[in-house]
User: Fold this.
Amino acid sequence: MIGGLTRTATQALRQLLDAGTLANLPAGFKSRGIRIRDDDQPFQPGEFRDVDAPGGNIRDQFQILPFKEPSQTLYSLLGFVVNAGQRFANIADMAVGEDAQNRAVGTTLALLERGSRVMSAIHKRCYYSMRQEFRMLHKIFATYLPPIYPYQVYGADQMIKAADFDQRVDVLPIADPNTFSVAQRVTLANEQLKIAMSNPQMHDIREAYRRVYEALGTQAIDSLLKPIEQPIPKDPAIENTDAMNLKQLKPFATQDHEAHIEAHMAFMKSRMVQVNPQVYATLQAHISEHISLKANQEVVEAMAQDPQLVQMSEQDPEAWTVQFNAMVAKRVGELTNVLVQAEAGGQQQDPLVALKSRELDLKAMDLQRKSQEFETEEQRKQNEIMIDTSIEQAKIDQARLGQQERIRVAEEKLDIARMKEMQRRN
Assistant:
């Protein structure tokens, strides 16, 4: 639809230029008998030449063809068509970054999508065309490629096989046809980060920050983000230290589970751990994981010594799995019961002392809760500052693009005005 407006504007501009050329270079008829000296040379400013006019009147010897100057109506039509094309394409200037107050992210994103509607359509059609071309190449390779074709691929197989292009494999361009600008990618990434920060238990915050940096075009993101700490087997003392620092503990199947459980149980009886509920809960959860691994090991060893269960694992794996889970659950219950009885037997003390200890525990829990709330609030403020900074940068970039577009339009209008002024003078 916009193609008709484009062709109309192009033809109107050509007609204006043709009319100006014909008006500046007049042509016509002259009498056969009239003679002009050096009639093949153009006139110089202030020059007069001799003319032999048989009739005596030079004006009657010439007939100028009635070429009109560029029409003002046609020029107005050109401006109307250009403006109509701009309105149809919705590429008018947007006041992004010029608000008196902060604008919501959703509103900014809607303005970006509205102002880039044509570029979005072009981007989607380029994606569609590339996908079709990849499919044609895929079909050609699957039909005419030999069974094995040598091809240099870095870090992969040096051969390409015809089976690589069968119906099980589809070749697609790596792009998102719905994302057409850096500002939109940054806005979407910031919105994802804000949603992830609102509920960090359900999201990977590190991955959310990585996507923001990728949208901003940051290089060497891995050197900017803290590396993910890989868990390694540790002795019980180091694990107790990590629990005091509120770090996650990871048990391993190769550890001595009985020794770890005894060490953690002894550490949990200390006053420092008993007044800190989070440390106590962390160690208790870690002990439960050791109990699970220990029960799994004991059940595996017991089932390996039973010929009937070994035969069941080969003939009916599903029934063996059900039996294995039942035995593990039973063994976990036995170990947990022993652990609870041992803990209850070691906690017999004077009721007044127990009451005072409970009061101290409540005070410690309240202090720890306030400390965590303060840390959470500070982290939230820092995240909001970072998100606002990223959004402002995106607005600045979009405003810069809008300013460049306005400059370009102004230059085009100035060129048209200059052409009109030159035509008027001529």
About this structure: The CA atoms of residues 304 and 310 lie 6 Å apart. DSSP finds 14 helices and six strands in the chain. The mean pLDDT is 78.
